[in-house]
Design goal:
Elements (H helix, E strand, L loop, with lengths): L4 E5 L2 E8 L9 E5 L13 H13 L2 E4 L18 H15 L4 E6 L3 H10 L4 E7 L20 H8 L11 H5 L7 H14 L2 H13 L13 E6 L7 H10 L4 E5 L12 H10 L10 E12 L2 H8 L1 H21 L3 E5 L3 E6 L2 H16 L5 E13 L2 E3 L1 H10 L7 E4 L13 E8 L6 E7 L2
Parallel strand pairs: 3-4, 3-5, 5-6, 6-7, 7-8, 12-14
Antiparallel strand pairs: 1-2, 2-4, 9-11, 9-12, 10-11, 12-13, 14-16, 15-16
Amino acid sequence: MESVRYARNGDTHLAYQVLGQSAGAGSNDVMLFPGAFLPMDALDDYPSAARIVRRLGSIGRLILNDRRGVGQSDPLDRNLRTTPDDWAADILAVLDDAGSERCALVASFDMGLPAMVLAAHHPDRVSALVLVHAFARLLASDDHPSGTRIDGLDRFIEVLDGKEAAPATPDVIDVIAPSMRDDQRFRSWFDAAGRRGASPATASTLWLAAVEADVRPLLGQISVPTLVIQRSENPFVGPEEGKSLAQAIPSAELLELPGADHLLYAGDVDPILDAIDRFLGGGGGEGAGDRVLATVLFTDIVASTDQAAELGDRRWRELLDVHDDTTGRVLERFTGFLVKTTGDGILATFDSPGRAITCAAALRDELAGYGIVTRAGIHTGEIERRGDDVGGIAVHIAARVLHHAGPGEVVVSGAVPPLLAGSGIEFEDRGTHALKGVPGAWQLLAARV
């Protein structure tokens, strides 16, 4: 590990490290928050955690940080309340001190809270957001049914605070890392790292702050490219919470992977690292994918949230089934490749921008017969293929173009019309726009189809 540096937010000293100096300050910066009060100097001591550091460090300059109260940073004042807003301000202080103008944030569990706050309030400082088993509101409630339901929460807090012996609760490893329950090396490392990371009082204070936090009102303001990663059998932060988070953040991608481990560094970490590498455009990770020129199509259902509320769960599910069946047939007709569904829309690729446009129009017209109003965004550029998934800046641009389309419209980036000279497809200029999270200004046009 590199030597520890200290940033300051007010009177608080915040420990951090920078790896990969050769990348150059501000060039492809990535900041990692593994969560669970894990101090940064513990990451080299367990193979899967060290592997995460190596893979993220291959993307660009990697910044690690001990948050306030953890590891080598200054302790918390337990008499003062701490919130995700405070944590976000600390992150900003570290980025300033490290000379990072824009940085991709990779955050797990409760550290997703300040990462989302920072992305919402300072999009100019966040190039991308990766959320692994994160949440906007942890506990389930009447208005948040996808949240976590934890039996004996008060008792768990007492254990963290040292008021109860640990055997008074179920084995925490069984809940947050079930695949590691019989791995004594992992248990010893996790226990030692946790004790070194935060005192009982600090752990309970940070845990209570996470439980009380609710950043749901900010999700609609997040404009940076976002990837939500969720293991499908996670009992702590379940798949429904991942879906809820991805649906609330504009243009967020949801990736559901097999597995039950909640901890980022438990179980099979390679699928998560592969996905992050693809999403952030890394080229140095193991098993890098092929880069090809393709046309990317995003669609979604206009006012889907309002329709879902009006129709009710059963009727809305039936409507989505119609949408998915129709989409499959239309894509096959125009030789499009369905990459994934996005809840109320699709991401697909084509080897021809003309077919992408006519497919989007045909899909719009067929779904209109069922009372489903769609819109589409299209961009042609280089993508990275990894199996059945795709990544790269072209995917993000197409997602941003979608948000400039009105009901029934097929809007394309300025990269598309020059490829269709003589095709007969006409376009209406929609002006030049800044696409959130994408460098430069982009001409947008509506296809007349």
